[in-house]
Write a structure and sequence with these properties.
alpha+beta; 33% strand; Tetrahydropterin Synthase, Chain A
Length: 128
């Protein structure tokens, strides 16, 4: 099995709810997203086509998140909940992990372990 990773960036604003630190105020990030797949090498010598991975992630994730207000989508706009939301929207892929950087030095890594939290992640009015 090979680990195939593609990197993406998007801009988004948010503020944390029920939080007393400075991130309770409206602010934005240039997020870096790493999507890693776990896939066997095929007969043609490739595991998973990078172009196909890019097309899927841009269509399902980046198009919805870039220059958005994350609080309109998530019940809590934390990087943790964002990682779960991204995983759920890409779960048809052979995912290994999702890694999100809010800053160059702060990231969250998710490997699908907390899927039971997904109903709490979405705002009530939203669905996939």
């Amino acid at each position: 099995m090979m680990k195939i990773t593609k990197e993406f960036r998007f801009e988004a604003a948010h503020n944390l709810i029920n939080y007393e630190g400075k991130c309770k105020n409206l602010h934005g990030h240039t997020y870096k997203l790493l999507v890693t797949l776990d896939y066997p090498v095929q007969e043609n010598g490739l595991a998973f086509d990078f172009c196909e991975l890019e097309r899927i992630v841009r269509e399902r994730i980046i198009r919805r998140l870039d220059h958005s207000y994350l609080n309109d989508l998530l019940s809590q706009s934390s990087a943790e909940y964002l990682a779960i939301w991204i995983w759920e929207n890409l779960k048809e892929l052979p995912l290994f992990e999702i890694k999100i950087f809010e800053t160059p030095f702060s990231s969250v890594t998710y490997r699908g372990e907390e899927q039971h939290l997904f109903p709490k992640v979405l705002k009530e009015k939203d669905s996939l």
